[in-house]
Write a structure and sequence with these properties.
Blueprint: H1 5-15, H2 20-24, H3 30-37, H4 45-54, H5 59-66, H6 70-86, H7 90-101, H8 109-125, H9 129-142, H10 150-166, H11 171-187, H12 192-208, H13 212-228, H14 235-248, H15 252-268, H16 272-285
């Protein structure tokens, strides 16, 4: 059996967005999953079979996947594609994506979703916004099942950034808002960090549409989750955006107070750029 089995199981588990304890339910203990992922023990065949079902991977394919170079091939291609896309090299990225589409390793639904997503980012960088949105929507639908996965959320966040970068409106934005709302409602307690991200990006869209009260509502929901789980994930950003909404509504006193709160969170998390943004807003109101 592959020496990488623990790493592969961890990678697949994160891809379907479940915790070790969730994966362990009905199979073994959470500590056993932890030991497998850290390479301390190898799973029995029947345990591996049950794990493969939980991870939505065909057992026969899973066994072949573990004992071949497929895992390394996928990881290598994904890393290369992300690097080239991040560098804004449209033609090289599209060539790599075309190559990946021809590989058997990328016939899996999650891999197809990844390729649609990266292709969408390429089209966005090439200023073809309409095609970028279409591909993002295809990506979101490509591997959708009952449970939302982390890659689904990343795709929605990409779509929000495309929207704010292009100031588009219409059916694409309606679909995006609906999808983000589903994320925030479904994930809530299960994955509060992703739920907060979804609410923050919903608020950004509403703010861009000048739907200020809707934006404030999303921000308040996000802040409530942050306080409930005692986390500062996106908390400063939510405070800053609430301040922008209050300022746009003419409530300058409330805006100033929210900007001041935001600086405290940005200072605590050492977010220098965001801290300076908040300070600039405070100075403009002083």
């Amino acid at each position: 059996m592959s020496d990488n089995i623990g790493l592969i199981i961890r990678s697949l588990r994160k891809r379907v967005n479940i915790s070790q304890s969730k994966l362990a339910e009905g199979i073994c203990s959470q500590s056993e999953i932890s030991k497998i992922e850290n390479g301390l023990i190898n799973p029995y065949v029947n345990t591996l079979y049950l794990i493969s079902r939980k991870l939505e991977v065909n057992f026969n394919d899973f066994y072949e996947y573990l004992d071949s170079s497929a895992y390394k091939e996928i990881e290598s291609f994904q890393s290369r594609i992300k690097e080239v896309v991040a560098a804004g090299n449209f033609s090289d990225a599209m060539q790599l994506i075309a190559e990946a589409k021809g590989l058997q390793s990328f016939e899996d639904a999650q891999m197809k979703q990844f390729l649609f997503w990266q292709e969408a980012v390429c089209y966005y960088l090439a200023k073809n916004i309409e095609q970028a949105f279409i591909l993002c929507e295809q990506a979101f639908r490509a591997a959708r099942k009952a449970e939302l996965k982390e890659q689904d959320i990343e795709i929605l966040i990409s779509m929000e950034r495309m929207y704010n970068g292009s100031l588009r409106s219409g059916t694409h934005i309606t679909h995006l808002l609906n999808a983000l709302n589903v994320v925030s409602e479904k994930l809530g307690a299960a994955n509060y960090k992703l739920a907060v991200q979804a609410l923050y990006h919903m608020a950004r869209i509403y703010y861009g549409m000048q739907s200020l009260h809707e934006a404030l509502h999303c921000c308040k929901r996000g802040v409530h989750i942050c306080r409930e789980h005692q986390t500062m994930i996106n908390l400063g950003e939510l405070m800053l955006l609430q301040g922008d909404c209050r300022q746009a509504l003419g409530d300058l006193g409330a805006a100033l107070k929210l900007y001041q709160y935001a600086t405290l969170f940005f200072e605590a998390t050492e977010s220098a750029y965001a801290f300076n943004q908040a300070k600039t807003r405070i100075e403009s109101l002083s």
